[in-house]
Amino acid sequence: MGDLLGTRRPSQAARLRELLAAPQPLVAPGAYDALSARLVEQAGFDVVYMTGFGTTASLIGRPDVGLLTGAEMADNARRIAAAVDVPVIADADTGYGNAINVVRTVQLYEQAGVAGIQLEDQVMPKKCGHMSGKAIIGTEEMAGKLRAAAEARRDPDTVIIARTDAVATHGIDEAIGRARAYAEAGADLLFVEAPTSEADIERVATELRGVAPLLFNWAEGGRTPPLSLDRIGELGFSLVIYPIGTLLAATAGMRSLLASLRADGVPALDGLPAFDEFTGLIGLPEVQDLEQRFRG
Question: Measuring CA to CA, how many Å separate 144 from each of 25, 64, 71, 293?
Answer without folding.
Answer: 29, 25, 22, 52
